[in-house]
Amino acid sequence: MAEDAYKPHASRDAAAEARYHRRAFVVMMALFIAAPAVVYPVFVMKALCFGLFACAFNLLLGFGGLLSFGHAMFLGMAGYVSAHAAKVWGLPPELAILAGTAASTVLGVFAGLLAIRRQGIYFAMITLALAQMVFFFCLQAPFTGGEDGIQSVPRGKFLGVLDLTNTLVLYYVVLAIFTAGFLLIYRIIHSPFGQVLKAIRENEARATSLGYRTEQYKLAAFVLSAGLAGLAGATKAIVFQLASLTDVHWSMSGEVVLMTLLGGMGTIFGPVVGAFAIITMENYLAELGSWFTITQGLIFIVCVLAFRRGIMGELEAWLRKRRAG
Amino acid sequence: MTEIFGVPTQALFGQLLIGLINGSFYALLSLGLAVIFGLLNIINFTHGAQYMMGAFAAYFLLNKLGLNYWWALAVAPLAVGATGVVVERLMLARLYKLDHLYGLLLTFGLALVIQGAFRHEFGSAGLPYSIPEQLTGGTNLGFMFLPKYRAWVIVASLVVCLGTWFVIERTKLGAYLRAATENPAMVQAFGVNVPRMITLTYGFGVALAGLAGVMAAPIYQVNPLMGADTIIVVFAVVVIGGMGSILGAVVTGFGLGVIEGLTKVFYPEASNTVIFVIMAIVLMIRPQGLFGSR
């Protein structure tokens, strides 16, 4: 990626890249809008929530080069707060989702301030440990309902008019939230802020010497990623009317890493593809319990050893080659 | 009954002992992680699974081959270490030129496979492993009852940790190892077979995890997921101690085990999280870890 900028046809490449992104986006949206006619909508909603979660994670890993092994804390915490807000405080769904998102953003500030003090492998271990702390907090805190979680969360009316008890209405609201989050991430990546982030990923010392306060950029990326992961978690809690310990467990942090890795880290559409692939697999293997874990582990191993660009990364490399040749 | 700070001494010393036991395992596991990290620059996420494999190896040696605990102490680490050598040769060796994060991802995937396979085979319920007869019973120290096996675990763990420290810091072999950590290309140029050294180092680190597993088998039940949560605590221990020094890993391991035990007495609600809280405080004050160097 870095070498492309020095080629004489860089601007032409960038235009081609933007054209490809537009086309892919149109195809993706067409598929999602038509999906409820063919596929069970609840399944697609689940995949959309995880797709947004993985995109938020990818913002940090793929563009900031920071591997968080604790992103479940944002997904799960936002889920608890939004479920609590909707059920106990009786807030309408849009405010409940906002409350969840805000909670994980605040959590992201604290976790980020601690985690960015170390780099690389330590960053991953620290985020994992912090997430484990949040897990035990959720296990013991009275408002989360412990092992039972928060069940039968009311869906209510979105913005006072859209009745979310109707599955199809709920589907398109979730799709709208997903699209808004997805476009926001796209915008962040292609903004000057995103460019600086990529520069830090490639060579942090150099970015510092150019006068950028890299710590602040990394923290901002971390908080944005946490907030968007929270948006996914809060929405998921409303859709499934449930917030549970599964979403704060370390295995969930691993799952989002896997989705991003399989789909293609550092690509725009990869995390969505990865999320759909893993959720589909989970759908078929869930009853088999440990087989799902084994398969996940095997995909990790294969991706790291032989498939590091992921599905979309490979596809894009192939497209680029075809364009050049 | 005597009390300290309103807590009966029996309970206090009991938890202190449990803390020391947990600390023994934290020390052994973080030592293995530090040894591997030093040379391979990889954080071995499979460490928890390999610890569990050590416990299962002890269980099988006893129930299938009739080899008792003392045999298991020698055979199980060798067997688990051998699987580590295979993993290093087949998988990790391909990753050294890449970003170190790939090593973390690979070993995480491997841990999922191993834990999933064991759970598929043996379920999530623990299998019992009894204390060897030479170490059953205990002594009454007057202020508390000290079970022999627990005393043995603490002493054995200390001996193994200090032995490892001695080999790495005070012998010629250890000097090669430290040199290769600093500059592998130079050591290779002097005629030392560095790739083989890396393989054996990984095998040794993994064997330490296996040994910890054998020692843990009679205390905790032999369970496919016994290492899954432990490894996360050990990661926090490693962050607190910093991976620069072997003795640092040992001291931090024991120290945090004791602190965790004491928290169980004075404020039980926080006993699961106290190590993570300490990690957060250490990161604020001394980000490189207590014994680490930048």
Number of helices of chain B: 11
Ends apart, CA distance between termini of chain A: 18 Å
Widest sheet: strand ordering of chain B: 1-2
| Morphology of chain A | globular
Beta-strand share of residues of chain B: under 5%
Helical content class of chain B = 55-70%
Q: What structural class results from the helix and strand content of chain A?
A: mainly alpha
Following the backbone from N to C, one meets helices and strands of chain A in this order, namely HHHHHEEHHHHHHHH
Stretches with pLDDT under 50, minimum 5 residues of chain B: none
Measured between the Cα atoms of the first and last residue of chain B, the distance is 50 Å
| Order of adjacent strands in the largest pleated sheet of chain A | 1-2
Which terms summarize this structure?
heterodimer; A: 325 residues; mainly alpha; two-stranded antiparallel ribbon; disordered N terminus; B: 294 residues; two-stranded antiparallel sheet; 11 helices; 4 strands
Task: Walk me through this protein's architecture.
The complex is a heterodimer of chains A (325) and B (294). Chain A contains 13 helices and 2 strands; from the N terminus they run αααααββαααααααα. Chain A is an all-alpha fold. In chain A, a hairpin with a 3-residue loop joins strand 1 and strand 2 (162-163). In chain A, helix 4 (93-115) packs across helix 5 and helix 10 (250-263) packs parallel to helix 13 (310-324). The longest helix of chain A is centred in the first third of the chain and has 29 residues, at 10-38. The N and C termini of chain B lie far apart (50 Å). Chain B has helices at residues 9-40, 47-63, 69-90, 101-122, 148-170, 172-182, 184-189, 194-216, 226-241, 246-266, 274-285; strands at residues 3-4, 7-8, 138-140, 145-147. Chain B has 11 helices and 4 strands. In chain B, 70% of the residues lie in helices and 3% in strands. In chain B, helix 1 (9-40) runs antiparallel to helix 10 (246-266) and helix 2 runs parallel beside helix 4. Chain A binds chain B through residues 67, 69, 114, 117-118, 120-122, 124-126, 128-130, 132-133, 136-137, 139-140, 250, 254, 257, 261, 289-294, 296-301, 303-305, 308, and chain B through 37, 41, 43, 91, 94-95, 98, 100-102, 104-106, 108-117, 119-120, 228-229, 232-233, 235-236, 238-239, 269, 272-273, 276-277, 279-280, 283-284, 287.
